[in-house]
Amino acid sequence: MTQQPEVWNAAYDNDTAPWLIGAPQPAIVGLEAAGLIRGRVLDPGCGGGEHTILLTGLGYDVLGVDLSPSAVAYARRNAAEKGVPQARFQAADMLRIGTDPEAAAALGHFDTIVDSALFHVFLDDPAGRTAYVDALHTLAVPGGVVHVLALSNAAPGFGPRISDTLIRESFTTGWDIEDLRPASYRGRAGVPPAGTAELPVAADGTVEGAAWLARIRRL
Questions:
Q1: CA atoms of 44 and 49, how far apart (whole Å)
Q2: How many angstroms separate the CA atoms of 41 and 63, rounded?
Q3: Is 95 within 8 Å of 133 (Cβ atoms)?
């Protein structure tokens, strides 16, 4: 089953999160540079807030949400330290959105949703995965786009690694997968989960794991 908030809190409180690289993922930076992010933006599972901070600083209307209160607190500190104190973050349980109208209304609707390393968390939780995809459908406006950057099992890597087939099978009715391609995901070396030790370490202490990058339109 999907991990509870306390587990995620510990990753931030104890600085054991491999995704806290101090910068946005290059793949997400590339999406913005290519003009693939527009309108009101949601950053679900925002973690340390790097993508919300990046996009807010560029003038987008962005909301970062995370199940973990420690992540939200970390993201707010991070935004202030990086000179973007206006970046907005709040705690939210994405798995409630599809079945809780009040929770959905509290967030509103979004033209673009940028999922960086949240979808793959539901690898071994089919019910959670279904609830999450339902939540994305609820929150995206018709014609809105969900970008998913997820760790891939197609090459050596770390963390919960998924197949492209799982992405295709999860986004069916009500969705159109416009693009799904290999990408990479940057993490910190020397911290859990297992797998980082097998990858080459860059001078800045990061490693590159295999990933998928999908662009999925809400019908």
A1: 10
A2: 6
A3: no
4 class by beta-carbon count within 10 Å (0-12 exposed, 13-18 middle, 19+ buried):
exposed
| Cβ-based neighbours of 156, under 8 Å, separated by 6 or more | 195, 198, 199, 209, 210
Is the pTM value of this prediction over 0.85? yes
Strand-strand pairing, 61-66 and 88-91: parallel
How many C-beta atoms surround the C-beta of residue 32 within 10 A? 19
CA–CA separation, 39 and 65 (whole Å) = 17
pLDDT tens digits for 150-168?
A: 999 998 788 899 999 999 9
Q: Provide mean pLDDT across the span 131-154.
A: 97
- Residue 47's closest CA among 141, 187, 170, 166? 187
Please give the distance of CA 30 from its chain centroid, rounded to a whole number. 15
Banded model confidence at residue 7, pLDDT cuts 50, 70, 90: confident
